[in-house]
Design a protein that fits this description.
- The complex is a heterodimer.
- Chain A contains 24 helices and 22 strands.
- Chain A is of the alpha+beta class.
- Chain A is elongated.
- Chain A starts with 6 loop residues before the first helix and ends with a helix.
- Chain B contains 2 helices and 11 strands.
- The termini of chain B are far apart.
- Classes of the chains: A alpha+beta, B mainly beta.
- The interface between A and B is medium-sized, with 27 and 26 residues.
Chain lengths: 702, 153
């Protein structure tokens, strides 16, 4: 089946499911009993498995399947969530992510089977379900890979399966026998009550492997994995061990009803093709090995395919944006209008109108067209806007992993994930943010003991806060760690020769902090694989500057560090309230508006020459916007004043405006660099009729 | 430029847009000029410099416009049908509009035609020199000086 057309959908959805899994697993780790979460996880895992299967990504499907089994058991309450289990599951998610990345790059899932992981999952499952009675299951992993060779199955009365050998297998066995190895057929019957046949079968495989190399199984490994067998199966192992030992070992696996071991019997094949054949079983053994060493004969096409992928390692998938259907509908509407406008223009060229009339209609149509095109422009821009959530939502997981790795308890608190940024910026901002967070986790936060000694809460706090301020989006990343020791930076810088002692004398604290943004400058005493190699902050800085943003660092020794990333917001879109002030139109960002009040002028009181109003017990100052903005013209005194109450934190102010127009989604634009931009004005926007309205920055007014 | 071939003999020629401000002709180096548009509605920007009447919307881009009359300390603009806004792009990402009384013509002047009164980097004067052409004299505008704020103001 050609599934390439679904590839993009698959990738998009796989990413979403993985993200959902990550998020919910984090919750599950904290609240192991949360039923909703486990249901969510199960759903996501199940969809992912189904998708991978449909797309023919067998390895991915298998891993997801095994993970799903675990989720299933958790869901049904048969096993508990343990830290080891979540670790294992997180690793599983990483492996799945790797598959998805491979698929993005090469359209193929790659050849990593993640066998150790699957083993670990099976083990966890076992421990969870049976209290770990088979915990001693061998560490080493090997399971026959699915083979394309024809294998016939014949029903046999007691075991249900009979092993038949293909020619090459016979050759291999006879060759092995010359080395003193015998092929033993191990017939296994599982108990009828066995729930996870595949897992059991797996353990049997492991057990048998202790004695030698498994060269085949009936049914084949893939079918066993997929539980496509009744309760019996057989494996063939090349071993010099006592068959009775093998049998005992197999019977040791729980839920195995019966096991018989007998020597393989067949007519010896012609030794003609022995060269090729001898290699074959080797190819069929350990998958990890099979993927690293390229074996001749049969697996050659696979190896060739693998090489092919490596050479053709260009991204096969286009980047895509998920768009709110409403935005698309808007765009569609505009395009329909565009067609109407075109038709309008076309109709003028007919002879139905007098020349003079023609001109007016023509001008009207042109204006109409202008309006539509600028709206289309805006709509397209809006389509490009993506909430910052899509970048930051992977950070909680990262911090969790770092916390484990660095052995420091820490917590990440994120706010403002809904802040929208242009897609191009979103794509670029992930790495710099990650760098900064890693820095905070590694260098910033002290160890738990140190924190305790300092009287800080043991769990370090990292906050990531995104919000829009005027013309920019600001992302603040702070930690409550030790802060940057400028003395240390100074010493290091002199030591490294970055600055001279004389230079150091004249440098301010800020200058020292700026040193951190220089290439190859790290103050970490120990280089860890988390950070400290000195390729961090300078990369962060250059990346952010390439997005024409700035990055600042503030630090208080002993109290923490805050990195502030400021990104320009030429494309930002906000909801705003449109008002008129003395005939001029202004936009007030909806986010800063608290309430809108209509108050009789008698209620305005004067305190220290300032107008205030007592609004439900709160005394708030009144700002006459027309005066503040020097709006020309007379202002008639009215009986009632319309007041937009804006808030900044706890502080409020009432902005007196003339009229309210209504709510409007506006695209913020800069008013240009040459004109003096007062703090009150955060930008401008173009209204539907082409008029420019200025945006008031309520933060500067309160 | 279609007539560029005529000037191949003299590579030093620079083209200027001749604009009228208060009955005086000024030349603006054509390399700065992005566009010339008719007068349109200007949105006042509170607390801006007095010589910036406000901003306009040019195909979705917000462009601050400067009144050269106000900048030069002359009487305020009287908008007529001849009033134009010259859109300049001194930098890639920043545009500015100049309100002028009238746009006259494009002039080609060689360096020799111009009497320099100030260097191009001199930010203290709005005129770098006076050019002579067939119909009279033209003041060559020091665009960087006009658009950058002087410390004093």
């Amino acid at each position: 089946m050609d599934v390439s057309q679904y590839l993009e959908v698959f990738i998009e959805e796989a990413k979403e499911h993985l993200q959902a899994l990550n998020e919910h697993l984090l919750i599950l780790e904290k609240e192991p009993e949360n039923e909703n979460t486990i249901n969510e996880i199960f759903r996501a895992a199940h969809s992912l498995k189904g998708m991978a299967g449909t797309m023919g990504y067998k390895r991915m499907q298998r891993l997801t399947h095994d993970m799903e089994n675990v989720f299933q058991e958790i869901r049904s309450g048969k096993m508990k969530v343990r830290p080891e289990l979540t670790d294992c599951l997180f690793e599983g998610l990483d492996a799945l992510q790797e598959y998805v990345d491979n698929i993005i790059n090469t359209q193929d899932e790659g050849t990593n089977d993640n066998q150790p992981l699957i083993d670990a999952l099976a083990r966890e499952l076992d421990i969870g379900l049976n209290g770990g009675e088979t915990e001693k299951a061998p560490e080493k992993n090997a399971e026959p890979e699915k083979k394309a060779e024809p294998v016939q199955e014949v029903k046999e009365d007691n075991t249900g399966v009979k092993v038949k050998y293909a020619d090459y297998e016979k050759t291999a066995i006879s060759e092995a026998s010359s080395e003193g190895l015998f092929a033993y057929e191990v017939y296994v019957d599982l108990q009828e009550s066995c729930l996870l046949k595949a897992a059991r079968a797996y353990l049997v495989f492991k057990a048998v492997e202790e004695f030698g190399e498994i060269i085949k199984s009936v049914p084949d490994a893939q079918m066993i994995e997929d539980e496509k067998f009744d309760f019996s199966f057989a494996v063939v192992v090349l071993s010099n061990a006592d068959p009775e030992n093998i049998r005992k070992r197999v019977l040791n696996v729980s839920e195995v009803k019966e096991a018989t071991v007998k020597k393989a019997e067949f007519e010896t094949a012609a030794p003609a093709q022995s060269n090729d054949k001898a290699e074959e079983p080797a190819a069929g053994k350990d998958k990890a090995e099979a993927s690293t060493e390229s074996t001749p004969a049969k697996p050659a096409p696979a190896a060739a395919a693998k090489q092919g992928q490596q050479t053709a390692k260009k991204a096969v998938v286009n980047r895509s944006v998920r768009v709110d259907i409403e935005k698309l509908d808007d765009l569609m509407n505009l395009v329909s209008e565009l067609i109407i406008a075109k038709n309008g223009l076309a109709s003028i060229s007919g002879d139905d109108f007098a020349k003079k009339e023609k001109k007016t209609i023509y001008n009207e149509q042109i204006e109409y067209l202008e309006r539509i095109t600028s709206n289309i422009h805006q709509s397209v821009m809006k389509v490009r806007m993506v909430p910052i959530e899509s970048v930051v939502n992977r950070f909680p997981r990262m911090i969790r992993d770092l916390s484990k790795k660095l052995d420091k308890p820490m917590e990440l608190v994120m706010t403002g994930e809904e802040t929208e940024l242009d897609r191009t910026v979103i794509d670029e901002i992930g790495d710099p943010l990650m760098h900064i967070l890693r820095n905070s986790a590694d260098h910033g936060l002290e160890s738990a003991e140190k924190r305790k000694a300092l009287g800080k809460p043991e769990t370090g706090l990292i906050t990531l806060n995104a919000f829009q301020e005027g013309n920019s989006v600001i992302i603040e990343c702070s930690d409550d760690g030790g802060g940057i020791d400028t003395e240390k930076v100074k010493k290091k810088a002199i030591e490294k020769g970055t600055i001279t002692e004389e230079q150091a004398e004249t440098m301010t604290e800020k200058d020292f902090i700026d040193l951190l943004f220089r290439p190859s400058f790290s103050t970490a005493e120990q280089v860890s694989d988390v950070s400290g190699r000195g390729v961090g902050l300078d990369v962060v800085k250059s990346k952010i500057e390439s997005l024409s943003g700035t990055v600042e660092c503030k630090t208080v020794l002993g109290q923490g560090t805050t990195f502030t990333i400021r990104l320009p917001l030429t494309l930002a879109i906000i909801q705003s309230l449109m008002v008129t002030i003395g005939g001029e139109k202004y936009a007030i960002p909806l986010g800063s508006i608290d309430t809108i009040e209509d108050i009789p002028k008698e209620e305005i009181k004067r305190v220290e020459k300032k107008e205030v109003i007592n609004l439900r017990g709160n005394v708030i100052p009144l700002i006459r916007m027309a005066e503040l903005l020097d709006v020309p013209g007379e202002r008639p005194e009215r009986d009632n004043v319309t007041m937009v109450v804006v808030a900044k934190g706890d502080r409020k102010a009432g902005l007196v405006v003339d009229e309210l127009i209504g709510q409007l989604e506006i695209v913020i634009k800069s008013i240009g660099k040459y004109i003096n931009n007062s703090k009150m004005i955060s930008g401008a926007t173009v209204l539907g009729d082409g008029e420019v309205a200025l945006i008031l920055d309520a933060n500067a007014l309160v | 430029m279609a007539d560029a071939a005529d000037f191949t003999n003299n590579a030093e020629l620079t083209q200027y847009i001749g604009v009228m401000i208060n009955n005086e002709q000024y030349g603006i180096d054509i390399s700065y000029v992005d566009n010339i548009v008719r007068m349109q509605r200007i949105t006042r920007v509170p607390k801006a410099q007095p010589f910036f009447p406000g901003v306009i919307n040019l195909r979705g881009e917000i462009i601050p416009v400067m009144s050269l009359r106000r900048r030069f300390g002359l009487e305020d603009d009287v908008f007529t049908t001849k009033t134009r806004i010259l859109i300049l792009k001194p930098e890639l990402q920043a545009s500015i509009g100049f309100i002028v009384d009238e746009v006259k013509e494009v002039l080609s002047l060689s360096d020799a035609d111009i009497d320099h009164v100030a260097g191009p980097d001199d930010r203290n004067t709005y005129v770098t020199g006076v050019g002579k052409h067939a119909k009279g004299l033209i003041s060559i505008m020091n665009v960087p000086a006009v658009i950058t704020e002087k410390e004093a103001t």
